[in-house]
Amino acid sequence: MSDLSIKIKICDREYPMRVSAEKEEKVRQAGKALHEKIKHYRERFGIDDKQDLLAMVAFDCLVEKLECESGQTGDVDFLLRKLNQLNGLASKALP
């Protein structure tokens, strides 16, 4: 399978990329999400400097990533506690 040539627009600049067909949709979604975040910061805070906009979006994305990671860790811990509780109950119920 060959790579596709696509262009992603970031802060009024087009960036050519080569991506696999399987990743094309994700890359385009990421480009669209990036555009929306940039637009949000531009409108909400009146930031016009492209470097500042990109820095704020990068920071925001990392905070979201860390929140997701900590949330997943909490879910795993919760599931492990529940499984241990169920294991304990099963051990008591079985002779």
Task: Walk me through this protein's architecture.
There is one protein chain. The protein is of the alpha+beta class and 95 residues long. 73% of the residues lie in helices and 15% in strands. It is built from 2 helices and 2 strands, in the order E-E-H-H. The protein has a two-stranded antiparallel ribbon with strand order 1-2. It starts with a strand and ends with a helix.
Could you outline the blueprint of secondary structure elements for this entry?
Elements: E1 4-10, E2 13-19, H1 21-45, H2 50-93
Average predicted local confidence, pLDDT = 87
- H/E series, N to C? EEHH
Number of distinct helices: 2
Shape: elongated
**Head-to-tail CA distance between termini:** 58 Å
Q: Rg to the nearest angstrom?
A: 22 Å
Helix content: over 70%
Taking the sheet with the most strands, its summary is: 2 strands, antiparallel
Low-confidence stretches: none
What class do helices, strands and sheet pairing give? alpha+beta
Strand content: 5-15%
Number of strands: 2
* Side-by-side strand order of the widest sheet: 1-2
What keywords describe this structure?
95 residues, two-stranded antiparallel ribbon, 2 helices, 15% strand
